[in-house]
Design goal:
This protein has one domain. The protein contains two helices and no strands. The protein has helices at residues 2-33, 38-69. Helix 1 runs antiparallel to helix 2. The radius of gyration is 16 Å and the shape is elongated.
């Protein structure tokens, strides 16, 4: 059961990173056409921080799992 939940969490994290990437691409395209609204700037900043943090957490979690099972 715990293994299933860990896999589900990893899949959810990957989906979050992918969807955030697509939304960031949309915001960058919009940014070239017009000035972003303050809320859009905040969302863009939060997504960038979250993507960097989450990718680091996935790498860290993977190395911990590798050390545990080896």
């Amino acid at each position: 059961m715990i293994l299933f939940l860990e896999i589900l969490r990893a899949v959810a994290s990957v989906l979050l990173i992918i969807s955030a990437g697509f939304y960031l691409r949309y915001l960058e395209k919009t940014k070239r056409q017009r000035k972003l609204a303050p809320l859009e700037l905040i969302i863009c900043s939060v997504f960038l921080i979250k993507v960097v943090h989450q990718s680091g957490a996935l790498n860290e979690q993977g190395s911990q799992n590798y050390q545990t099972f080896s």
